[in-house]
């Protein structure tokens, strides 16, 4: 078992522009099973070929799912059409939808969240790096694959590049990852941190979790409440933006300080009170996790993890 | 993106939200005409994007920074000193002559409005909003924003208006009503009337208030707004309601379906360097007070880079999220902005490529060093996609760059370089 992805994941890619093509090639190189593409203007029968890999490209998600039994979609569609692409996947009842796109209008996401509420689909993103699971060679996103290594630590983050940063430190410290999830930096996203924490808590392949938050919003407080209530696995947490001047929007649409609850201090206090181990410096996430795992007797030296 | 109060009120008016009679003036002629039409008793409001206007001051540009220090140091004391030559951003006047006396200093090209939110440079005043005065019986608060956690619009309203809603929430949280909006239903007038009644408005005002709330929701929804706030709307002595203030934030991500919001945008209210960064397609740039110029990819990593620098005793000169770099000219543009900042003593480049390829970043850095003739010490940390090629490009270029593989080590090098003003000889890599 594992969270969100596994070796039965059959990936559909939506949006085969230049960037989508580049990224799907890297996922194929990584060993991910890509079964279908969807791109407007294509009709069934056309194929996308790369090296030894080929997959058919369809005009609609419904047709692609029907013909290929795809069970996970990755969306690289540009922002004006991203919400439409998500809604199309919800209508086609794709169980897991991952949307990478940055800059989706917030009112579009209000519609998406309404459609998700009574659906069979789960959404990760938008404005996220996606999900990667090294043990099953499954890369549903834009990650640099080389820094990842299979192991027993889950990673959940609002920021994409901070997933890479944290994972690089973990791998250097000899700690592999079970699944890494970037939930996205926008004000309205699909699954939030606490939902991913719940998945990790119930996942036998995960022994500990790195939680990376940032200033703005209340998602880390919700995560802290979940940790306090239900989490028995150790959590190492870092909050980005402790030194950001208040009131300025720092790039992520979600990262604006709203009153005192949005500050790094408030979030760190909530997480610490919930029992999370705080890494004050973003450069010490790996070493902090190493210490936590060793104390819990869960440190697996590299090689033994497989 | 923020818009001016007078623009928010244009939107309100176009959607049937009652606002006081009036309009924006930039010339004396316009001001005179507005007072003649809507006066004699008028309110004159300086139009700037920053908040805290009422407690701010209109001053000459060269006095802005001193005034800012006074306001931020002793906000309580200076509040009681609106008199004589000290003028606030919201003034009352009676008749054309008195109104012009208030109008002229506001619209002097050398004037700045300074409030605790403007920063030491103050804000240039784009126009003066001149409106008839409203006879107020009671002030109320109303806003619509996006509740990220629930993925729905959220209406916040209170019978304690005209003051900071955060303050009311702290001292009397029960006075703050929260109404989640079902996005499918929207906010029809009957919901508005129910809210009006909860706010304790008198029966004469229930219907106009209900319509006003429903129409404000239409502004929010049709304009792709991230915020619509009216603080206060008032119950008049005649028993009806008027929005006497208005604040609208527009969602930049939705600008593609509103012609780029060009008609609402006022570039004079934006930081020139931040506009330059936007035009160079750089994700996000914000000027800060320190001396280490930062170029980072991703907002989260950019914030974490600032955090690391400060934990090592350094001070970032800026926040810069370069976005996804797939062309080296973007690196050059980013570095041009950094190099042109006179405060920058050291440059710290931290790129962890996912979508971005770091070999392209490295080529951009090498070109920029030559093209921009960069003199400051340069610390570069590259990781992620195509990192080996990237490091090779830097190494083979022969230019004087300090590198480190890990974030903590790289930050330490940058802080050290900023303190000594010197490059350390190639000790790493």
Structural notes for this entry:
The complex is a heterodimer of chains A (306) and B (429). Chain A is of the alpha/beta class. Chain A folds into two domains: 114 residues, 3-Layer(aba) Sandwich (Rossmann fold), CATH 3.40.50; 152 residues, 3-Layer(aba) Sandwich (Rossmann fold), CATH 3.40.50.261. In chain A, 33% of the residues lie in helices and 22% in strands. In chain A, the strands form two sheets. In chain A, strands 3-4-2-1-5-6-7 form a seven-stranded mixed β-sheet, with helices on both faces. In chain A, helix 5 crosses helix 9 and helix 6 runs parallel beside helix 7. Chain A is globular, with a radius of gyration of 19 Å. The two termini of chain A are 14 Å apart. Chain B is an alpha+beta fold and 429 residues long. Chain B folds into three domains: 112 residues, 2-Layer Sandwich (Dna Ligase, domain 1), CATH 3.30.1490; 127 residues, D-amino Acid Aminotransferase, Chain A, domain 1 (2-Layer Sandwich); 149 residues, Rossmann fold. In chain B, strands 8, 9, 10, 11, 12 and 13 form a six-stranded antiparallel β-sheet that branches. A four-stranded antiparallel β-sheet of chain B has the order 1-7-2-4, covered by helices on one side. Chain B is elongated and about 80 Å long. The C terminus of chain B is likely disordered. At the A-B interface, helix 4 and helix 5 of A face helix 10 and helix 14 of B.
